[in-house]
């Protein structure tokens, strides 16, 4: 019988109550992992976990150090080990920099950047104790190329790419690989719920069509999840400290 790619691995996915995180949790479970489905929205996490074999839900707000520490501790208490961490939780606020309140800046950077730091900070020792494993940070192509109105988000994601590199170098000797995924526009609530704001503020009546034209189409969550499986598995054994762009080619084209 073919062994599944993540057979018996223990994985935490944050922000897994919907969207990309949910798709990653589903793909990991399909590859045999025991997934800890985590989200600030406890009910959403429970619904996803209930639909997956071997999964449990553990709520966590990634902005809160004690909650992230407790999330890792709970995964280890339940399964005796931790092999894979996916800091995926993220939010966006849509406004030009000069109209961004300090509170919004802090909110976006605390979820998208502090949250990733905390996940690495508390998960890495547990993964080292398990003999090694993989951390896959969900960054964004906006870390590399600007998109007006989401400057706080893009700055946080650029920070995630930098954290990925430092963590990769520091953890390499412990057999822990750290990589980042940089998706373009993927069809999730994070994108669809903000389209109207982009249209109004950029005075572009069909921003969605512009995105689809530049990227070819919206990306699908399963396409991101497939890369997350690869990066969690031994098939990516020489990938470390890298940012994997997944954007239909938009960031490498002028028009
Ligand atoms: N959708 C895209 O086009 C896209 C592109 C690039 C990067 N990303 C990144 O992928 C990740 C997932 O995005 P998505 O599109 O699935 O978004 P989404 O809004 O559909 O889902 C995000 C999930 O994170 C959870 N969450 C929010 N704040 C949290 C917190 N403080 N603690 C724990 N969980 C929290 C939400 O409850 C939600 O379930 C994010 O980091 C996002 O920045 C998304």
TrEMBL record:
Family listed: Belongs to the short-chain dehydrogenases/reductases (SDR) family.
Classification of source organism: Bacteria, Pseudomonadati, Pseudomonadota, Betaproteobacteria, Burkholderiales
Organism, scientific name: Cupriavidus malaysiensis
Pfam family, one: adh_short_C2
InterPro entries: NAD(P)-bd_dom_sf (IPR036291), Sc_DH/Rdtase_CS (IPR020904), SDR_fam (IPR002347)
Protein name (Swiss-Prot/TrEMBL): Oxidoreductase
PANTHER family hit by this protein: 3-OXOACYL-[ACYL-CARRIER-PROTEIN] REDUCTASE, CHLOROPLASTIC, SHORT-CHAIN DEHYDROGENASES/REDUCTASES FAMILY MEMBER
């Amino acid at each position: 019988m073919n062994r599944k790619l993540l057979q018996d691995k223990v994985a935490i996915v944050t922000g897994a109550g919907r969207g990309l995180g949910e798709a990653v949790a589903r793909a990991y479970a399909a590859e045999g992992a025991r997934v800890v489905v985590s989200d600030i929205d406890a009910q959403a996490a429970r619904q996803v976990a209930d639909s997956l074999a071997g999964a449990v839900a553990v709520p966590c707000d990634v902005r809160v150090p004690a909650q992230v520490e407790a999330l890792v501790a709970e995964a280890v208490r339940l399964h005796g080990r931790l092999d894979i961490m996916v800091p995926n939780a993220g939010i966006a606020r849509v406004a030009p920099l000069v109209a961004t309140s300090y509170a919004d800046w802090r909110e976006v950077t605390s979820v998208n950047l502090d949250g990733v730091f905390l996940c690495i900070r508390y998960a890495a020792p547990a993964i080292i104790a398990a003999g090694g494993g993989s951390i896959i940070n969900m960054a964004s192509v906006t870390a590399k190329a600007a998109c007006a109105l989401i400057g706080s988000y893009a700055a946080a994601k650029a920070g995630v790419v930098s954290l990925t590199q430092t963590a990769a170098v520091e953890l390499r000797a412990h057999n822990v690989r750290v990589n980042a995924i940089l998706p373009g526009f993927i069809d999730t609530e994070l994108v669809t719920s903000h389209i109207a704001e982009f249209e109004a503020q950029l005075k572009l009546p069909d921003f969605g069509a512009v995105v689809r034209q530049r990227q070819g189409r919206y990306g699908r969550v399963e396409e991101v999840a497939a890369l997350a499986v690869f990066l969690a598995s031994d098939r990516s054994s020489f990938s470390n400290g890298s940012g994997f762009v997944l954007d239909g080619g938009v960031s490498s084209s002028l028009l």
